[in-house]
């Protein structure tokens, strides 16, 4: 099943079932998902990428599990002799993180066995399909940075707004050292918790820094004011309110309260999906603020759009291989042919999903502020 995205193209939903050779039997090596509630056995995943669900609802008449942003499609569960409901996806799922919810007799609920993550403008259940390359975002015995919540004043909205700030390991040790800053945006339906909870951004950074693969920098994540826009309603989106919050209110607050290198050369903006669209809009409107731009499954730049962007250091464009990788690669080549430092990345065997964006951040981070 596919759904149109706010970009006017095709949004690739995460499927609860995919085609798989019928002569391939399901391997019964299921283990609890790493995102289960403490002590909960289900949902489970196996080595092939299948997911198995069990719900305790003895009085229910029907239960379906829907996976992906928005919870489309469904794996129908059947009632067992002990009155629980169980079911297994028809095929293996893509590696990485997926949202899901359950429908019980027509009502939408979260799985009491799984942790919740904010997506689809609500708290959804989450499941993690182990990835063959998951080491780069794994929790390791390395020095860790800090992720802290801040509240910053916003005169334009008449309230205090929330952001999360990642400071790298060692930030508190050398009070004379200042850092570049990446402003990192979530996608539609998500909020400022997405990049650390679903995206593992802090662990990706910790591991890269421990491997000495990048110069440490601060990451700032705030709500992009996107979730009032419905699918297909892009024409109604006005970037001005969020641009005011970000550029005129949040950035000055960060530069005042954290040890930043407060200039264009040491400031980057990136985003996934609709956050990528916001990144493009703001960097087009305010080219003097940022020197590094990154769009992850969030559109492309054309050379003529940035030809007068003085101080531009890098454009990074990425997508999953199941999205529109040719457009990304072609856009990158045109930028390079125009003499612009552009890098493209395509995540293998992933769609519009968090493994695409985890991998994208892993590729992007070492390129920033070089």
Structure summarized in a few sentences:
The chain is an alpha+beta fold and 370 residues long. The chain has helices at residues 194-197, 201-210, 240-257, 274-285, 303-306, 325-337, 354-364; strands at residues 2-4, 10-12, 31-32, 44-45, 51-56, 63-67, 72-79, 84-88, 96-104, 107-109, 116-119, 122-129, 146-154, 159-167, 181-185, 218-222, 267-272, 292-296, 314-320, 342-347.
Structure keywords:
single chain; 370 residues; Immunoglobulin-like; Rossmann fold; 2 domains; 7 helices; 19% helix; disordered N terminus
Give an overview in words.
It holds the Pfam family Esterase. This is Esterase. Keywords: Signal. The protein contains 7 helices and 20 strands. The protein is α+β, with helices and mostly antiparallel strands. It has 2 domains: 129 residues, Immunoglobulins (Immunoglobulin-like, Sandwich); 232 residues, Alpha/Beta hydrolase fold, catalytic domain (Rossmann fold), CATH 3.40.50.1820. Strands 3, 4, 5, 6, 7, 8, 9, 10, 11 and 12 form a 10-stranded antiparallel β-sheet that branches. The longest helix has 18 residues. The protein is globular and about 70 Å long.
CATH topology of the largest domain: Rossmann fold
Q: Ends: how far apart? A: 42 Å
CATH class of the largest domain reads Alpha Beta
How many discrete domains?
A: 2
CATH architectural arrangement of the largest domain: 3-Layer(aba) Sandwich
Please state the structural category: alpha+beta
Write the layout of secondary structure elements.
Blueprint: E1 2-4, E2 10-12, E3 31-32, E4 44-45, E5 51-56, E6 63-67, E7 72-79, E8 84-88, E9 96-104, E10 107-109, E11 116-119, E12 122-129, E13 146-154, E14 159-167, E15 181-185, H1 194-197, H2 201-210, E16 218-222, H3 240-257, E17 267-272, H4 274-285, E18 292-296, H5 303-306, E19 314-320, H6 325-337, E20 342-347, H7 354-364
Parallel strand pairs: 15-16, 15-17, 17-18, 18-19, 19-20
Antiparallel strand pairs: 1-2, 3-4, 4-5, 5-8, 6-7, 6-9, 7-8, 9-10, 9-12, 11-12, 13-14, 14-16
